[in-house]
UniProtKB/TrEMBL annotation:
Protein name: SGNH hydrolase-type esterase domain-containing protein
Pfam families, sorted: Lipase_GDSL_2
The species this protein was found in: Cellulomonas aerilata
Annotated stretches, region: Disordered: 1-27
Domain SGNH hydrolase-type esterase intervals: 114-290
Stored InterPro entries: Ester_Hydrolysis_Enzymes (IPR051532), SGNH_hydro (IPR013830), SGNH_hydro_sf (IPR036514)
GO function terms (MF aspect): phosphatidylcholine lysophospholipase activity
Length: 308
């Protein structure tokens, strides 16, 4: 329980601010509290995860960052959980999906850890849909899926948190890394966060850590494509954080070089992507997009050779 004498700042007014550039937490105006909550998980930040963050304190921190009350956040989380369950049930009702999902535990083993950035940290994302589907699968296979993804993470930052992976004693690590490696920082400096050469090296290092330290299987998953027009339309003038198709393409080339056996999401999607794949920023998949992702990822995993 949270001690009553902890001096925490009051949540910000959740009403949209006058500043057209975004909210007090740097989020654009289209990202309301329900959307922001999908990607906000302070309990997963490495320093917090290392010692374990009290759930009530985690709610306070998440709510303060989002700009709502803890009670409102809990209401949002419940809505997300219900949406996740309905979406998982709909997937399981699709022809062939349950059969493909039922083959995944033989590939991953009983303890799966998922690594990634906000695309994977999403409470309505492919990783949580995978976990929900496995829980609701007839026969309920004994598989735990632990999502350690942290919004904004690069491949380098994922290496730095690998001790948390080892603690989970995974039998398989699924890693969708790279979108933030191509992120540009600074309105004037325009600095790329991680170079393609570093991305390739980091993905190889993550595989080595997974196999040598965790003694488990490593499956790299290439991040999905972005929509440049959508991003440019929603990014404020003088934005200090930017993404481009060219940078993401360079990252994808590095990911493919580091992991020739990658689950190549962009290649699997091909030209089938529709406008409703993304939320307004053109970087993060919508629930529709995340559902498309989990279909492809489950299909790809089901085709891999069984573990062991």
């Amino acid at each position: 329980m949270i001690e009553e004498n902890i001096d925490l700042p009051a949540p910000r007014d959740p009403a949209p601010p006058a500043d057209p550039g975004g909210t007090g937490n740097g989020a654009p105006l289209w990202l309301d509290d329900a959307a922001a909550a999908r990607y906000t998980h302070h309990s997963r930040l490495p320093l917090h995860a290392m010692v374990g963050l009290d759930p009530e304190l985690a709610d306070v921190l998440d709510a303060h960052f989002i700009g709502c009350t803890p009670d409102r956040l809990r209401e949002i989380r419940q809505q997300h959980a219900e949406t996740l369950a309905r979406t998982a049930d709909a997937l399981l009702a699709e022809p062939g999906f349950a059969a493909r999902l039922a083959r995944v535990p033989a590939v991953t083993g009983p303890r799966v850890v998922v690594l990634g950035d906000s695309i994977t940290a999403d409470s309505l994302g492919w990783a949580d849909l995978l976990a929900a589907g496995l829980r609701r699968l007839p026969g309920s296979p004994s598989v735990t899926v632990t999502n350690l993804s942290v919004s904004g993470s690069t491949s380098a930052e994922t290496i730095a948190m690998f001790d948390l992976v080892v603690r989970r004693r995974p039998t398989c690590v699924l890693a969708m890394i790279g979108t933030n490696d191509g992120r540009r920082q600074g309105a004037a400096a325009d600095v790329r966060t991680v170079s393609p050469t570093e991305t390739e090296r980091n993905l190889r290092a993550l595989r080595t850590l997974t196999e040598a330290d965790a003694g488990s299987r490593f499956v790299a998953i290439a991040p999905p494509p972005m929509d440049q027009d959508r991003f440019d339309a929603t990014a404020p003038d003088g934005a200090t954080v930017r993404f481009t198709v060219d940078d993401l393409d360079a990252t994808l080339t590095a990911v493919r070089a580091a992991a020739p056996d990658v689950v190549d999401v962009p290649a699997l999607l091909g030209s089938t992507i529709t406008d409703d794949f993304w939320v307004p920023d053109g970087v993060h998949p919508s629930l529709t997009g995340q559902t498309v992702l989990v279909r492809h990822i489950v299909d790809a995993l089901s085709r891999l050779a069984p573990a062991g």
